[in-house]
């Protein structure tokens, strides 16, 4: 059953994106010379296909991150509508909900992968959320804001929690990762080793999460990785320097705005429009049109 939030959002979105508004916002988009950089986590099939259909209907050409990198590096303003789709984390359901759509419409996508969740089965944030909902005494009261726990302590708690978690696997396996790497439409990007909140990591921890994890993932998939996304959109000046030094060509935040040409000067903090899981399509449309 759909939530009230979903239904209300869908109705408001449909009113606010009526044809003339749609047209006006697309004109603004065209004049801005932006690239529509969009990202998902674990969308349902229906929402993902509706977004793709809307982009196709409005004559967006889907480009890969390699093509975006050339535009950014040569500081070329686009003249026709271009969209780039990325997905974070490598959710198992992407295999059923995203893959058939990108194959149907021939869309290149980049999936940003953190290594530990592929080994363990889940993101640590989910394991923590689950443990908190089950009132686990392994997490102290003051640690319920788990995204703020220092990395060393977080890893300690996580290593205990993961042994007893009741969660089923939500992230793709190594075998599935090796299979999707063979798909010519799928590129793999870096997303740290532990899905770490980089802004609260020490310099040494960041070095491991950004540089060492790049080499590790390249070894697993047997391909070079050129693009990076900051988990949770968290980074600091050290992260930007390390991403650049590690040899990445571009890195993405979670700042949910159009990728305008003035952002080309900062290739390691490029924005992406977020389409949250299970959002109604009309709200998603508002996001794509830069209205939210
Ligand atoms: Zn992530």
Tell me briefly what this model is.
The chain is α/β, with parallel strands linked by helices. It is built from 13 helices and 8 strands. Strands 1, 2, 3, 4, 5 and 8 form a 6-stranded parallel sheet that branches. Strands 6-7 form a two-stranded parallel ribbon.
Structure description:
By secondary structure, the protein is α/β, with parallel strands linked by helices. It has one domain: Alpha-Beta Barrel (TIM Barrel), CATH 3.20.20.370. It is 46% helix and 11% strand. It is built from 13 helices and eight strands. It has helices spanning 4-16, 19-32, 45-57, 65-74, 94-97, 99-105, 115-120, 124-133, 151-164, 174-180, 203-221, 237-245, 281-288; strands at 36-40, 61-62, 82-88, 109-113, 186-190, 227-229, 250-252, 273-274. Strands 1, 2, 3, 4, 5 and 8 form a six-stranded parallel β-sheet that branches. Strands 6-7 form a two-stranded parallel ribbon. Helix 1 (4-16) crosses helix 13 and helix 11 packs parallel to helix 12. The radius of gyration is 19 Å and the shape is globular. The mean pLDDT is 94. Zinc ion (ZN) binds next to loops.
